[in-house]
């Protein structure tokens, strides 16, 4: 190499400013270099010698405040069109880096780097851009709040996860267009990330500062490292961000994305005679995304495709009293979905079942984070079959002070002359670094089928997030007439008080027990009569857990509960006797319902990881207003035999028997298998198979007599259903994709025989869409 060039590079290297995390040098003057490079993961272009350098990471989990064992160096610079990150991650423990050619957002079991960008600089919501050592992408948002998201807490291939369950939540459902590459090297791995300004919203200012966190997950040890010296004794993880200072004159250009979509399907169904009928179908539609301003985006959709390419994971059903929650997976709702999050899940987009069209505005309005949506649902889901149901939702949240927020929610469901409307206000106030208080008040008005009802929801929370001691106290009251038609509030007519505390202990470096702690507390629920009367549900519990050396996690719980049976639920019940029928007698509360559980999770080994749990105890049988005993086992194993092939096996088994005589009330067994083969970063094959075997005995009263429901003798139920889904997916970037899949549902009279399976429905489907980015 030319000696002059070597000298120039050396001088340039020496002049680079280094920002040490452990020294709390976390305000970064980010260099601007107006050039373009190829994202290849090599980090050998000259521009990297001019980048700001971030080093001296510290451990955040399982124990905070310690220097990181493995060195990490991050380089960052920006041009007029994008911000660039380069990471050199060293591994001092040998060949232990975990990395595969996984599908997008499916790198939870991999070593990974996460870049958190708070482009509004308000410490409430941050973009998350993550990659594994091979450059496989993970993206979404991280919020300082942990109330319910508008789309749900988890989802296939993404979902919500958090680094510390006490400090906010992560939603991996949104997908952003960015470039990344990574490669394994002798000392560890290198990754390179380019985030175009077209892909994100940011402040409408010429010169601005952004919040920055850089996190590294090391799977072989179970450690989580952070560039900023983040500590667990803080009620807002995002408030501990560093800063990128002095970004200016970023050029997004015209942000206009048009994604036309075409789908086709052939759906089959079976008749009682054994004949089958196949019905073809197809649709075309389009999504449009326009960047109105740097911090405001308008989305529109016409006849959107909301097909899910993977079925929801099966849940146990037979002894549930309230509606079960399923996460959002549909693309139109996911862009900007974090802006619709609210306490008590007052916005839940899966209430919109089969939209025909809609518009959505997300971003900053008058200094507040805002999300506004207007969507027309299919007429088939009308309350009165008169008109197309119309949903309108709005969520506003403004930062006050350093990171506290004041918010509002407005929703309406208009269905001809019927309607359900809701208004809400909420405040989250951080104080004294460790604490926050949150308050919410909501009111709903519903007019359906000539019946008017209204009701309110009130809630207050106080939380302390300390390193060794913390608590979360809640008081909530919901009127019987409260109705969140565009939300997910599955239980009303109650007053609830909860008080839970947490203690934590930390081992010395290298100790067998890295952390040990426990949650413990009490819960009381009254009907609307209030605390002056007996509680209808009570609970006391303690839940210890520990993280062991090498990444093992163990935990358990012990609790005592009581339940009072709601007499209104049994008004249609009668008891069949030898001569005549008799009234069904609802017993008093089921008290002293003791239960316990244990849980074990292995470290993430190179080829597998696993988790298992078992719970056992007394539970109420709500269908019979009786006491029962339950045994539940859950297990999951993930295997990665090669970098391209992975599989997972999940099993849920629930047995419920009557306490009075030990007879079986119900059983549910749900095994699920998923196999994925990643041919390239964009092309993969997937097979999902799930068997749901459910059986319930005929209802009996406490003396063993048959129960009549609406004058009909209950005969129990049996369901043995096998569902399979095949999928070939090609998705080079979010929005551009080709799907081809086949799904079927089969049933048989006896569980797990596989000899008399009869197909009840099946279908072949295909989808093509292309992202035009203008």
Helices, strands, pairings?
Layout lengths: L2 H13 L2 E3 L6 E3 L22 E4 L2 E4 L4 E2 L4 E7 L3 E9 L21 E7 L6 E7 L5 E7 L16 E2 L7 E3 L7 E7 L2 E9 L10 E12 L4 E4 L15 E7 L7 E15 L5 E18 L2 E7 L28 H4 L22 E9 L2 E9 L13 E11 L3 E12 L2 E14 L3 E14 L2 E15 L3 E10 L15 E13 L6 E14 L10 E12 L4 E11 L9 E4 L4 E3 L6 E12 L6 E14 L4 E14 L5 E14 L5 E15 L4 E14 L10 E3 L2 E2 L3 E17 L2 E12 L10 E12 L2 E2 L1
Parallel strand pairs: 1-3, 2-17
Antiparallel strand pairs: 3-6, 4-5, 4-16, 6-7, 7-14, 8-9, 8-15, 9-10, 10-12, 11-12, 13-14, 15-16, 15-17, 18-19, 18-45, 18-46, 19-20, 20-21, 21-22, 22-23, 23-24, 24-25, 25-26, 26-27, 27-28, 28-29, 29-30, 30-31, 31-32, 32-35, 33-34, 33-41, 35-36, 36-37, 37-38, 38-39, 39-40, 40-43, 41-42, 43-44, ...
**In the CATH hierarchy, what is the architecture of the domain at 18-248 at level 2?**
Sandwich
CATH topology of the domain at 18-248: Immunoglobulin-like
**H/I helix tally:** 2
Shape designation: globular
Total beta strands: 46
Mean pLDDT: 90
Q: Into which percentage range does the β-strand content fall?
A: over 45%
Helical content (DSSP H or I, runs of 4+): under 10%
Cα separation of the termini: 42 Å
Biggest β-sheet strands, sense, barrel: 24 strands, antiparallel, barrel
Low-pLDDT stretches are 1-14, 153-166, 308-312, 321-325
The class by helix and strand makeup works out as mainly beta
Radius of gyration, in Å, reads 28 Å
CATH class of the domain at 18-248: Mainly Beta
């Amino acid at each position: 190499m030319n000696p002059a060039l070597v000298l120039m590079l050396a001088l340039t290297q020496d002049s680079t400013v280094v920002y040490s995390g452990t020294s709390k040098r976390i305000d970064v003057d980010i260099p601007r270099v107006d050039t373009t490079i190829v994202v290849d993961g090599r980090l050998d272009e000259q521009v990297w010698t001019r980048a700001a350098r971030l080093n001296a990471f510290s451990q955040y989990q399982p124990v905070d405040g310690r220097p990181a064992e493995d060195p990490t160096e991050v380089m960052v610079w920006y041009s007029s069109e994008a911000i660039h990150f380069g990471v050199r991650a060293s591994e001092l423990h040998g060949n232990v880096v975990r990395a595969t050619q996984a599908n997008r957002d499916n790198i939870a079991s991999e070593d990974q780097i996460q870049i958190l960008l708070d482009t509004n600089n308000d410490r409430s919501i941050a973009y998350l851009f993550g990659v594994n050592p091979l450059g496989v992408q993970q993206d979404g948002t991280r919020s300082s709040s942990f109330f319910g998201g508008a789309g749900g807490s988890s989802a296939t291939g993404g979902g919500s996860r958090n680094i510390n369950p006490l400090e906010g939540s992560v939603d991996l459902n949104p997908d952003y267009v960015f470039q990344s590459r990574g490669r394994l090297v002798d000392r560890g791995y290198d990754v390179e990330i380019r985030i175009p300004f077209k892909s994100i919203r940011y402040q409408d200012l010429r010169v601005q500062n952004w919040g920055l966190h850089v996190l590294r997950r090391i799977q072989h040890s179970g450690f989580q490292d952070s560039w900023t010296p983040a500590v667990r004794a803080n009620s807002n993880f995002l408030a501990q961000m560093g800063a990128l200072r002095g970004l200016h004159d970023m050029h997004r250009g015209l942000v206009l994305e048009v994604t036309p979509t075409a789908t086709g399907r052939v759906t089959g169904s079976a008749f009682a005679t054994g004949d089958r009928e196949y019905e073809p179908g197809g649709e075309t539609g389009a999504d449009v995304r326009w960047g109105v301003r740097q911090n405001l985006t308008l989305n529109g959709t016409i006849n959107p495709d909301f097909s899910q390419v993977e079925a929801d994971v099966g849940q146990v059903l037979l002894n549930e009293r309230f509606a079960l929650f399923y996460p959002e997976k549909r693309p139109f709702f996911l862009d900007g979905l974090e802006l619709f999050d609210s306490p008590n899940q007052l916005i839940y987009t899966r209430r919109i079942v089969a939209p025909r069209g809609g518009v959505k505005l997300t971003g900053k309005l008058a200094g507040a984070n805002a999300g506004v949506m207007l969507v027309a649902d299919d007429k088939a889901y009308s309350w009165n079959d008169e008109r197309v149901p119309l949903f309108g939702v709005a969520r506003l949240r403004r930062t006050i002070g350093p990171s506290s927020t004041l918010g509002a929610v407005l929703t309406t469901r208009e269905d001809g002359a019927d309607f359900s409307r809701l208004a809400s206000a909420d405040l989250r106030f951080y104080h004294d670094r460790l604490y926050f208080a949150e308050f919410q008040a909501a009111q709903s008005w519903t007019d359906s089928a000539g019946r008017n009802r209204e009701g309110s929801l009130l809630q207050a929370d106080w939380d302390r997030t300390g390193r060794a001691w913390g608590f979360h106290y809640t008081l909530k009251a919901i009127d019987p007439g409260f109705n969140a038609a565009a939300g997910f509030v599955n239980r009303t007519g109650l007053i609830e008080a909860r008080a839970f505390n947490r203690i934590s202990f930390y081992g010395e470096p290298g100790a067998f027990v890295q952390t040990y702690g426990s949650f413990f507390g009490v819960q009381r629920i009254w009907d609307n009569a209030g605390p002056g009367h007996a509680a209808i549900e009570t609970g006391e519990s303690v839940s210890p857990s520990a993280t062991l050396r090498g990444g093992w996690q163990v935990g358990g719980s012990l609790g005592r509960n009581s339940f009072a049976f709601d007499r209104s639920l049994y008004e249609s019940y009668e008891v069949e006797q030898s001569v005549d029928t008799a009234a069904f007698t609802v017993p008093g509360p089921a008290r002293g319902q003791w239960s316990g559980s244990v849980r074990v999770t292995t470290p993430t080994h190179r080829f597998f990881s696993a988790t298992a749990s078992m719970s056992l105890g007394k539970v109420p049988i709500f269908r019979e207003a009786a006491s029962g005993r339950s045994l539940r086992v859950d297990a999951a194993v993930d295997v990665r035999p090669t970098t391209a092939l992975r599989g997972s096996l999940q099993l849920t088994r629930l047995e419920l028997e009557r306490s009075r005589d030990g007879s079986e009330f119900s059983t549910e067994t749900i095994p699920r298998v998923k196999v994925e083969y990643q041919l390239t970063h964009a092309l993969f094959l997937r097979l999902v198979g799930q068997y749901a075997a459910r059986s319930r005995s005929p209802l009996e009263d406490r003396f063993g007599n048959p129960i009549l429901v609406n004058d009909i003798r209950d005969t129990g139920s049996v369901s043995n259903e096998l569902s399979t889904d095949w999928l070939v997916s090609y998705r080079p970037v979010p929005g551009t994709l080709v799907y081809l899949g086949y799904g079927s549902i089969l049933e048989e009279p006896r569980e797990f025989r596989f000899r008399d399976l009869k197909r009840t429905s099946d279908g072949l489907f295909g989808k093509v869409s292309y992202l035009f980015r203008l």
